[in-house]
Write a structure and sequence with these properties.
- There is one protein chain.
- The protein contains eleven helices and 14 strands.
- With 305 residues, the protein is α/β, with parallel strands linked by helices.
- The radius of gyration is 24 Å and the shape is elongated.
């Protein structure tokens, strides 16, 4: 596993990363979340020794610089446009392969994996952001590393590309690899990650499984829509059952529909809709990171306000 221990970084008198500790396990995808300015990119650079700071990061018990070929241990994608714009995509990967002692036949293999075989002769300077992300991922995969560290790899991908990336990363982790990936696409991350690390203003806010993170911060609830909302509200008040209006229905702080459905049946209030609404990663994320945003706007604000 990757063991991150007490990473800290002060940048321009600001505590960019503040004593962060967590692990990245093999066989799993670990999502890395946080608001803009939380310190995610800085943390990843510290993990790779690309930025000076305090703390250590061990890859299977050893510092990355102690390996003869670090690229065989970890493949990285930190910048989508990290290539010479006048070289072709294949030339860019050829150079990376030669520097790492990787057979050039591997270049064509990774180009096919990321779907860029037909674009191999083109200069990436004119690539879209999505194509640049694919080329960056191809570079990270050249040595078939045990670990992948990817910073916002889904940026610029179309919906089909996002689905492909999700399936690929899950499959990669299943081969006893470890994947550590940051993203602002929370709905996508909820389908991708097994574990989640959340930071805000440089501090560790959560480090747990995805399921426990959601369940531990936002409760599921019952949603009901009936023919006579006012009558049903009176019944809930009499029973001292907490609720709040939610569109045309009511949100009730319960995790089972049975008792609510029975209550409506006994009151002879026809039910139009009754279901459990499970908590989402977005709800849990907003709950945990509240107050840690670097930038925030006012909803509904207009020039004439």
């Amino acid at each position: 596993m990757i063991e991150v221990k007490h990473l800290s970084k002060v940048y321009k008198q600001k505590q960019a990363v503040d004593d962060i500790t967590f692990k990245v396990e093999t066989g799993k995808v670990t999502g890395f979340l946080g608001p803009n300015g939380a310190g995610k990119s800085t943390t990843m650079r510290l993990m790779l020794g690309l930025s000076n700071g305090k703390g250590t990061t061990l890859y299977d018990g050893k510092a990355l610089k102690s390996y003869a070929q670090p690229s065989e241990i970890v493949g990285i994608l930190l910048e989508a446009k990290a290539f010479h714009p006048t070289r072709s995509a294949r030339q860019h990967l050829n150079i990376l392969a030669i520097e790492s002692g990787i057979p050039l036949k591997r270049v064509d293999e990774v180009l096919e994996v990321v779907g860029l075989s037909s674009e191999a002769k083109k200069g990436p300077g004119k690539f879209s952001l999505g194509m640049s992300q694919r080329l960056g991922l191809a570079g990270a995969l050249l040595s078939n590393p045990k670990y992948l560290l990817l910073d916002e790899p889904a940026n610029g991908l179309d919906p089909e590309g996002i689905v492909w990336l999700r399936e690929f990363l899950i499959s990669y982790a299943d081969k006893d690899h470890g994947v550590f990936v940051s993203s602002h696409l929370l709905s996508e991350m909820s389908q991708l990650a097994d574990n989640v690390v959340v930071i805000g203003r440089g501090k560790l806010l959560a480090n747990t499984s995805m399921a426990d993170f959601i369940a531990g911060n936002v409760a599921s609830h019952v949603y009901i829509r009936v023919t006579d909302t006012d009558k049903f509200i009176k019944i809930l008040d009499e029973k001292k059952i907490a609720y709040k209006k939610d569109g045309k229905g009511l949100q009730i702080d319960r995790d089972k529909t049975d008792a609510i459905g029975k209550l409506a049946f006994e009151a002879k209030v026809p039910v139009l809709e009754l279901k459990i609404r499970s908590a989402s990663l977005e709800e849990a994320f907003l709950e945990v990171t509240a107050g840690t945003e670097e930038y925030s706007g006012k909803a509904g604000a207009h020039k004439n306000d």
